[in-house]
Amino acid sequence: MKQTQLIKGVLEGCVLAIIAQKEVYGYDLMQALKHRGFTTIVGGTLYPLLVKLERNGDLASRTKPSPAGPNRKYYRLTPQGTQTLTEFSQQWTQLKGNVDQILTEALTHDEPQP
Amino acid sequence: MTNPNRDLTTINQLKRQLSPADRKYIDDLQVYLNTATVFYSNAPINAQLLAMLQDLLNANQDGLNAAEWFGHDPQSMADEILRQFPQPQWRAKLRDLAGFVALIIGISWFSLLLSSQKTPQGLQLNLLAFVGVPIVELIVIGVAFKLLHRTTYQNAHSFFHRHLPVILMGLIFLLGVAAILVTSLSPIGVTYILPTPWDTVLLTSIILVATSCFAVSLYWRYHS
């Protein structure tokens, strides 16, 4: 299975988790994702997701002075976003447990006899 | 300067720092995003575009170009952004639409009044032109924007297909001019004579109002 398909489902939660730590702008967020192994992510995936999360009320943005150059758009988590992140965390823990169990069973199971 | 105007000015300034290929990528993206909504405010879209452009400049410092940063399918990204963008409330839509239509009507009527025929009895106004010209202009602008939007990412290989948007745009423009000339110059429909001295009063008032508006807008721009 392609990695991008797997990532798509969890990217939203990961973006919320990174923004929960500190207010970030797009470039910062992309760098944070890449440093955590999401090396295939491009702006074409990230920017529509940020617009969607802001529209849904999980993120809020504000323009703040930037140390270098013009003001920048910073994203932060809203109370609703915190709630969404908590739900994602619970769902992910459960899903991960289920998948781990299936994989453990499959990998430890004896090879079927021909 | 208002925020939308400031964003647009900053976008234009920052684009100068890009390579020709990256500038074309951003130019196309800007045209595609801005022509998606013809009669409504593009302020939120330009704010988003500015944020993306600033990120691209950071990425340039890491050695990445626009295609590497945003991906090789800018149209899909733009469509997805447009799809996810919050739709403006109907009041805001109505306000933007009314403002745009009022501007077109104002410009049309201003030029029609100035070009109306002066007779010994007064100013001869072609009422059909006063209704028809703004409608034709709105249609031409709407069609031109739609055409620009649809052809921004068109992959044309033949010479004809590559230049088709320009040809169509020229045709639409000519059609619009022809329609305006027919409605404003032909003596069809109802005409109304605005008697002297009211014609002079009206024209002088319009010129005074237009000059005042221009001066006020310059003053606002200068002080913000």
Automatic annotation (TrEMBL), chain A:
It holds the Pfam family PadR. InterPro entries: Metal_resp_DNA-bind_regulator, Tscrpt_reg_PadR_N, WH-like_DNA-bd_sf, WH_DNA-bd_sf. Residues 15-86 form the Transcription regulator PadR N-terminal domain. Gene3D superfamilies: Winged helix-like DNA-binding domain superfamily/Winged helix DNA-binding domain. This is PadR family transcriptional regulator.
TrEMBL record, chain B:
This is DUF1129 family protein. It comes from Levilactobacillus suantsaii. It comes from the Bacteria.
